[in-house]
Amino acid sequence: MVNKKDEKGISVEKSKDISEWYTQVLQKAELADYAPIKGFMIIRPRAYYIWEKIQKEFDKVLERLKVKNTYFPLLIPENFFKKEAEHAEGFAPELAYIEGKEEGERLALRPTSETIMYDSYSKWIRSWRDLPLKLNQWANVIRWEVKQTKPFLRTREFLWQEGHCVFETEKEAREDMEKMALEYQKLVEGLLAVPLIVGKKSEAERFPGARETMTIEAFMPDGKALQCGTSHNLGQGFAKSFDVKFLDKNEKESYGWQTSWGFSTRLIGAMIMQHGDDKGLVLPPAVAREKVVIVPILFEDSREKVLNKAKEIEKSLKKWNAKVDDREEYKPGFKFSEHEMNGVPIRIEIGPKDLEKKTVVLVRRDTGDKELVKMSGIEKRVEKVLEEIQESLLEKAKKFLEGSISEAKDMDELKKELNKKKIVKVYMKDDKEVEGNVKDQTEGATSRIIEETKKEGECIVSGEKVNTVAYIAKAY
Predict the structure, then answer these.
(1) Which of 161, 167, 280, 352 is most open to solvent, judged by the fewest CB atoms within 10 Å of its CB?
(2) Distance (Å, rounded) from C-alpha 407 to C-alpha 450?
């Protein structure tokens, strides 16, 4: 990565080289760094604060839905993965093992926790009275990626939450899958201002071992989709493999109906890439630690008066964690650039002339707009502008997403639209072989969601009449 001290600003334009731009923002805004082990990252405090905010907000959702937090071991016996064939096959390439010499069996580092959790569920659940069982864990997972890694977007270790529920009926499980996908959408759009496409995964793309998978997908400025979270209806497959059963109200033995759902620190990568600009990071106020920075413009003859007023304003804006940048070794211009790089939503400038007029200059990070604000009305104005920034970031990103969706009727058209960095809607049969054909012909594009339509159309590959439309895009 580029050293922050080498250059003050970003040396590339986001629109010209988003990959290098992203790498520089991560380093210079002190969000992440590379670890000494390939494919791993260090999450620095500014980014970890964002993750803590996400956790805090989602814990409120869990509390409302009566889901309890828990923790299961990082190490999973190899034989657990062999119990559910499709699941085992899906995760086999990504499993990392440690040699458990004393145990005589290899132990896998957790890629996801279905297997180890359901082993316990089979012991805990006896009767319909034990249901629903709804647990969540905040944890790290290890997936031995062979693709090129990029902090937050694709790493061998990441932080996430995973919810695992057992219900009496199929209906409850299906409703839970749908509800959690929508809760994810509310969380991500409300907190991170990243708009999402929500829908079902195709047969080829769904979670190994699931009957149905719902996904939340963001679309990045480089024309790639980013899966930000998934919610699965597992049916009874895992319940049968792990003996998760109960006596129903008629004293008959029945297998549980299960769901699992999760999102990860990938959300932070989506937010950085969605909102950032050529000056650096742009933070939605909802996840900014310091929402306001106050930069005093100091001259020797008015230094003390200006500083005192700046500190007075800092106190009045305490609820937004306002901070006075009174470092004397740096000029105001340097401070402006640094706080822009770090994504602080509002900058307030105050100098001797402002003292005379009893005003300050308020600058928005997202648009760069400046306005004069009376000192007497500063609290109300700051509150209003922070709300406007949060709304504006989401609206701007929504317009980009809506403008990025196009349609194609044949393969040539699909390729042309993908080259224009679009998400392309096509009629496509929900079939692994058909989707494999699309992937081969488009050099790796996949369906992000698939939805049923009333109107029939011709499958882009087979030509047969279908009523399923796929959203095709390149993806991270």
Answers:
(1) 352
(2) 14
How far apart (Å, rounded) are the C-alpha atoms in residues 448 and 444? 12
The domains of the chain are located at 18-275, 287-388, 405-475
The candidate with the shortest Cα–Cα distance to 269, out of 141, 154, 143, is: 154
CA–CA dist 414, 266 (Å, integer): 28
Work out the pLDDT band at 7, boundaries 50, 70, 90: low
pLDDT band at 4; cut points 50, 70, 90: very low
CB atoms inside a 10 Å sphere around CB 266: 21
Residues 6+ apart with CB under 8 A from 105: 77, 78, 79
Q: Residue 65 in 3-state DSSP? A: coil
| Third-level CATH fold of 405-475 | Translation Initiation Factor IF3 (3.30.110)
Class of domain 18-275: alpha beta
* Token code pair at residue 256: 């549980």
Lay out the sheet containing 359-364: strands in order across.
323-324, 292-296, 346-350, 359-364, 370-374
On the CB side of 76, how many CA atoms lie within 13 Å of its CA?
26
Give this prediction's pTM: 0.94
> Using alpha carbons only, how large is the chain's radius of gyration in Å?
25
Q: H or E segment at 24?
A: helix 18-28
Length of the chain: 476
Question: Could you tell me which CATH number the domain at 287-388 has?
Answer: 3.40.50.800
Q: Which residue has the tokens 């007029």?
A: 357
96 torsion bin: left (phi>0), alpha (psi -120 to 50), beta (else): beta
**CB contact burial 188-215 (16+ within 10 A = b; e otherwise):** bbebbbbbbbbbbbbbbbbbbbbbbbbb
Backbone angles phi, psi at 422, to 5 degrees: -115, 160
Q: How far is residue 426's CA from residue 407's CA, in Å, rounded to a whole number?
A: 6
With H, G, I as helix, E, B as strand and everything else as coil, classify residue 59. Answer: helix
